[in-house]
Structures are given as structure tokens and as C-alpha cells.
Amino acid sequence: MTQPPPKTPPRRPVRMCVECGVLTDDPVLVAEVHQGTGPGFNVYACRGCAPSTRPHADCQCPLPPSEA
Ligand SMILES: [Zn+2]
Fold this sequence. Notes:
The chain has 68 residues and is mainly beta. It has strands at residues 15-16, 23-24, 28-35, 38-45.
């Protein structure tokens, strides 16, 4: 008799919303910041802020086209 593995919720990445600063486990990628010297980082917002969030002013790259 085999025990089913314990049901653990999938680990979701927690990100800080760039707009309101809350930690959310349902982040929305709103910008990708690329740095010439190394790997860039992603900017996330929570679901509530995402629609009204604009990329950071220091992001030097346009957002990639969504239908790429
Ligand atoms: Zn937010």
C-alpha cells in the first residue's frame, strides 16, 4: 500500500510590488531591467497595481512586444 505524497501547495515565488510595496505571491511582470554589466532583474507588481503600473523610469529598454 502506497501512501500518496502529502499535498503541498506549489511553491510560488513571492515578489514585492513595485507600486504599493506589498509582497505578493501572484506577481505580474511589468518590466525587465537590463544592465549592460550583468544580468538584469525583473520588476513585478501585484494584480491590483499591474494594470496601472508603468515601467520604471530607469528601465532603459522598452517592454518586449507581448505577442512575440
Ligand atoms: Zn501593488
